[in-house]
Specification:
Radius of gyration: 24 Å
Number of strands: 13
Oligomer: single chain
């Protein structure tokens, strides 16, 4: 039985605050509007990147849907920055904390004003997790509208390829004209980048959690289908208000497990390990990085999409998107989970199967390019990879855990021991890689890049250069307390906890210490000192001696929001959140 709708928050306010009506009438509200359910339509619209630039039409269509269903939309905006634009600059230090600041602003909009429900529109790296955090925190009737994906570029070039091309230009190995030609065509439309990076992964997770309408994740942005989803989202939100269908009725532990299952099946971004735990915590659910490791061991990768796979995510949507993946894995999912449709996940999938148009209108696009559906979303009997590939490693180098995406790592690097090359700043490591000063077999250690030290920027430039080098990609690894882009490939281990600034063992490593990576056994350890293997007790004794003389460096950020982050950020293993 559905809970009856309580008195609307908006109407309770009118009983005690007589100024509010006057102020709203000053914005051309009508007297009739004042008595309607008031819906926050909050988006990440802005000019930071192509993933938000097209949102004005979506805002309008969501508002139209709210009006049609008898509600009154209130449009607010909190824009985001682009990880791709700020990559390899000081701006990247602002990326992760922007998630928490955006979530806080949406909370202020939603609960500061007396909104009765909300539609949040976003599609990119930090805006989607920010909106999911706000949905869980505010516990109003809420729907997320994913912002869609770009169309694929000429020759399937993607913008993340610019990094390795740029490095080749710097070394004199590639004509600058080739780079400039690729830059001109890499982002041909608005929408999230065409690979299963953090932006695309976030959209998939929103749908997998039950917070977005079925099939709405990763719609190619130029299609009018995205506008139709926007209008339907606005209408459905008013229905949720009528039914008092609030976010935490949807965000159960089973819903988060469903999201991790789908994350594994699409080969999703490792940044999800930073985002889902704090989103769950806001909903009163405990999800840890170990849940990712446990679930990824048994779920195959079905999506043959970039960057590790072959096809752009535009084709993923044409192949059926999230619902097609769910149908392949139906018996692994918790089908009883409630969703924003007011139905369970199982009921949604049954409706999709009965709908003669749902898959047909998508797959016709694949006929145009002569690609089979099973090439893009593989059958469970013939997966792209036998398991999801995210592994959580522990050991004397990472007592609090570290992560590796084995799905994207060459097989020969799943087990590796090599001498450490230690860098306290990412820029130094990048220079060494560009100038070919790293020897095969080395383990690059990039430290003091964690949340409290430097905002936990992505180490994508270093990872891109490493993975593009045919020799280093199969012989050399990176270990960092920073993080990686969702487009990351190659032997890269991140999220090492505790971070160096907190005195984690990564702060005690010296050049030429031996580091062991063993993904199958989930181990990351210092196994030798100064190039010589040592028993574990001797290694611990050396580390204890070093700890006795170690002193943390001065904070890099003494003012502004990053100084706050350095004081209050939580552990990487818990999402590096400020709340």
């Amino acid at each position: 039985m559905e809970p009856s709708r309580p008195m609307l928050r908006s109407q309770r306010l009118r009983m005690v605050n007589h100024q509010g009506d006057a102020l709203r009438l000053g914005m051309n509200w009508t007297e009739e509007d004042l008595g309607k359910p008031q819906v926050l339509v909050d988006s990440a619209y802005g000019m930071g990147h192509p993933g938000t630039f097209h949102f004005r039409e979506l805002i309008e269509e969501v508002s139209n849907g709210v009006y049609e269903a008898g509600g009154k939309p209130g449009v607010f905006t909190v824009s985001d920055i682009c990880d791709g634009v700020v990559q390899a600059t000081e701006g990247m230090s602002y990326s992760l904390i922007s998630r928490d600041i955006m979530a806080a602003m949406v909370e202020i909009h939603a609960l500061g004003h007396p909104h009765d429900g909300m539609v949040l529109i976003s599609g990119n790296d930090k805006s989607v997790p920010a909106h999911l955090l706000a949905i869980a925190r505010c516990d109003l009737p809420a729907i997320h509208l994913p912002g869609g994906t770009q169309l694929n570029a000429p020759d399937y070039v993607t913008s993340n390829k610019m990094w390795e091309m740029g490095a080749a230009v710097e070394r004199g190995e590639l004509p600058r004209r080739d780079l400039e030609s690729a830059q001109r065509g890499a982002c041909p439309t608005c929408g999230a980048c065409q690979f299963m990076g953090s932006a695309s992964t976030g959209q998939v997770l929103a749908e997998a959690l039950g917070l977005a309408l079925p099939g709405s994740a990763l719609v190619p942005a130029p299609l009018t289908k995205l506008l139709r989803y926007a209008r339907a989202t606005g209408k459905q939100l008013v229905s949720m208000i009528d039914k008092n269908l609030t976010a935490r009725r949807i965000l159960t532990r089973e819903a988060f497990e469903n999201a991790i299952i789908i994350h594994a099946a699409v080969g999703g971004s490792t940044n999800a390990l930073l985002h889902l735990p704090p989103i769950a915590r806001e909903a009163g659910v405990e999800i840890t990085i170990d849940d990712f490791d446990r679930i990824h061991r048994r779920v195959p990768v079905l999506a043959n999409v970039k960057t590790t796979g072959r096809y752009p995510v535009e084709y993923f949507w044409y192949a059926g998107g999230v619902p097609a993946v769910m149908l392949e894995l139906r018996e692994m999912l918790h089908l009883g989970c409630l969703t924003v449709t007011g139905k369970t996940l199982g009921e949604n999938l049954e409706d999709i199967e009965r709908d003669p148009y749902f898959f047909a209108e998508r797959r016709g696009y694949l006929n145009n390019v002569k690609v089979e559906r099973d090439e893009i979303i593989r059958p469970r009997s013939d997966p792209f990879s036998a398991d999801g590939g995210v592994a959580v490693l522990y050991g004397n180098l990472a007592p609090g855990g570290a992560m590796i995406k084995t799905f994207s790592v060459p097989e020969e690097m799943h087990v590796h021991t090599g001498p450490a090359r230690v860098f306290d700043f990412e820029e130094e490591a990048v220079h060494a890689l560009v100038m070919r000063q790293i020897a095969p077999g080395d383990v690059l250690v990039i430290r003091y890049e964690g949340p409290r030290a430097n905002g936990m920027p992505e180490m994508y430039y270093a990872a891109a250069i490493l993975s593009a080098d045919r020799v280093l990609n199969t012989t050399t690894a990176i270990v960092t307390d920073g993080r990686y882009s969702g487009a990351m490939r190659g032997p890269c281990i991140g999220h090492v906890a505790p971070e160096a600034l907190d005195g984690g063992p990564i702060a005690l490593i010296e050049d030429n210490d031996l580091i062991e990576i063993n993904a199958p056994e989930r181990r990351l350890a210092i196994v030798g000192i100064k190039g010589e293997h040592r028993p574990a007790d001797e290694v611990e004794a050396v580390l204890a001696e070093r700890r006795g003389i170690w002193k943390p460096p001065q904070p890099r950020h003494s003012s502004g929001i990053l100084s706050l982050y350095s004081r209050v950020a939580g552990s990487t293993a818990e999402g590096a959140s400020i709340t």
